[in-house]
């Protein structure tokens, strides 16, 4: 296959992990005879500094020209600490999601046996947990009508039927390919938007008789994820609930540095780590590149290139088994490996296989 990849490295540790993702992509492409060309584009705080816009038109065009976007991270503390800032790096991420129509955010919560001891949960609770959160990404409060003055403010949690139907279909499609269990997470006891979700899900469920559908209030789901994470197979939820639950999901696995994600929808799909830009670690060669590298696996799998994805996953597992790990997951007494060294080891493994 011929791939055109837009590479958006962004801020903080973004450029360092991006480089490793690109190296892995290139190595896998060479191995399987794919042609890849990369087009680099700016976003986030980097783009604000350079052109005053966190998702400039040229970057949008580069994304639209590409088959897939390999995204890293955006965010810079100089904006977090300035409530008067008119434009923020995160707006670039939201603009990208909206302009590319990326309504489905797929965030797998997978555990790695050798890192289970890092989980804040007991080993026996979390071992074997393996579920996917499908988060609606272009609707709800993030994009609904907003208002703010000194006395009052509101955000509107707007959802239309087509928006709900299309994301539930994504949920059902994933459930069908997995353990056939879909949990629709909402707050239908309080919110009108949630009642619409639940009504539409009940209408759709008979079309998927092979999938068991259940409904759970979001507060209960937050609890259940801690008490019994193995209950879940695929969960589907609205934008804000999904934002919160996926942070919870990422920490129960033991390391946020290992979790990739895919955002898909109307235009070019985006593959990115779940973690953020970790500005404090910028330039230190200590950031874990595995979430970015696993995003490349998700990219290949999106194009039904299962063997390519498998090879990357095998390489990542082999690096963990060999204790070729960045400091935050390294075993006691283990050698020091930086971002570049872990990436290089994985590239080498791929070439040798
Ligand atoms: C995420 C992030 C973003 C979100 C922020 C950075 C706007 O937290 O991707 O989960 O809230 O969606
Ligand atoms: Mn978030």
Topology:
Elements: E1 2-10, H1 14-32, E2 35-41, H2 44-51, H3 57-65, E3 68-73, H4 77-80, H5 89-99, E4 104-110, H6 123-126, E5 130-136, E6 146-148, E7 153-155, H7 161-177, E8 181-186, H8 192-204, E9 212-217, H9 218-227, E10 234-237, H10 239-252, E11 260-264, E12 270-273, H11 290-302, H12 306-321, H13 339-352
Bound molecules: 3-isopropylmalic acid and manganese (II) ion.
Manganese (II) ion binds near residues 243 and 247.
Could you explain the architecture of this structure?
This protein has 2 domains: 1-100 and 268-353, Isopropylmalate Dehydrogenase (3-Layer(aba) Sandwich); 104-264, Isopropylmalate Dehydrogenase, CATH 3.40.718. The protein is 43% helix and 19% strand. The chain is built from 13 helices and 12 strands. The protein has helices at 14-32, 44-51, 57-65, 77-80, 89-99, 123-126, 161-177, 192-204, 218-227, 239-252, 290-302, 306-321, 339-352; strands at 2-10, 35-41, 68-73, 104-110, 130-136, 146-148, 153-155, 181-186, 212-217, 234-237, 260-264, 270-273. The strands form 2 sheets. It has a 10-stranded mixed β-sheet with strand order 2-1-3-12-11-4-5-10-8-9, sandwiched between helices. It has a two-stranded antiparallel sheet with strand order 6-7. A hairpin with a 4-residue loop joins strand 6 and strand 7 (153-155). 46% of the residues are buried. The mean pLDDT is 96. It binds 3-isopropylmalic acid and manganese (II) ion (MN). 3-isopropylmalic acid is lined by residues 90, 93-94, 243.
């Amino acid at each position: 296959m011929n791939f055109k990849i837009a590479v958006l490295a962004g801020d903080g540790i973004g450029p360092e992990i991006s480089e490793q993702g690109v190296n892995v992509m290139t190595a896998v492409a060479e191995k399987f005879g794919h042609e890849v060309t990369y087009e680099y584009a700016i976003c986030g705080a980097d783009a604000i500094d350079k052109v005053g816009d966190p998702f400039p038109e040229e970057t949008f065009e580069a994304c639209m020209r590409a088959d897939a976007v390999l995204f890293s991270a955006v965010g810079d503390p100089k904006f977090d600490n300035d409530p008067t800032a008119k434009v923020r790096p995160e707006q670039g991420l939201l603009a990208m999601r909206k302009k590319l129509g990326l309504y489905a955010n797929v965030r797998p919560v997978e555990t790695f046996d050798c890192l289970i001891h890092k989980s804040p949960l007991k080993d026996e609770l979390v071992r074997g947990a393996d579920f996917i959160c499908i988060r609606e990404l272009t609707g709800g409060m993030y994009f609904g009508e907003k208002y703010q003055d000194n006395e009052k403010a509101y955000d509107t949690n707007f959802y239309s039927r087509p928006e709900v139907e299309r994301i539930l279909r994504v949920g059902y499609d994933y459930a069908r390919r997995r353990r056939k269990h879909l949990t629709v997470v909402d707050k239908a006891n309080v919110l009108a938007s949630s009642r619409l979700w639940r009504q539409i899900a009940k209408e759709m469920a008979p079309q998927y008789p092979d999938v068991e559908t259940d409904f759970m209030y979001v507060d209960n789901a937050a609890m259940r994820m801690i008490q019994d994470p193995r209950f879940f197979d695929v969960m589907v939820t609205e934008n804000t609930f999904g934002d919160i639950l996926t942070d919870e999901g990422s920490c129960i696995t033991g390391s946020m540095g290992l979790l990739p994600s895919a955002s898909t929808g109307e235009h070019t799909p985006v593959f990115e780590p779940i973690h953020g830009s970790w500005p404090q670690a910028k330039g230190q060669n200590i950031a874990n590149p595995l979430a970015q590298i696993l995003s490349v696996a998700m990219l290949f799998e999106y194009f039904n290139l299962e063997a390519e994805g498998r090879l990357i996953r095998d390489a990542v597992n082999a690096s963990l088994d060999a204790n070729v790990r960045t400091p935050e997951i390294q075993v006691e007494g283990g050698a020091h490996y930086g971002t570049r060294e872990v990436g290089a080891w994985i590239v080498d493994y791929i070439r040798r296989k």
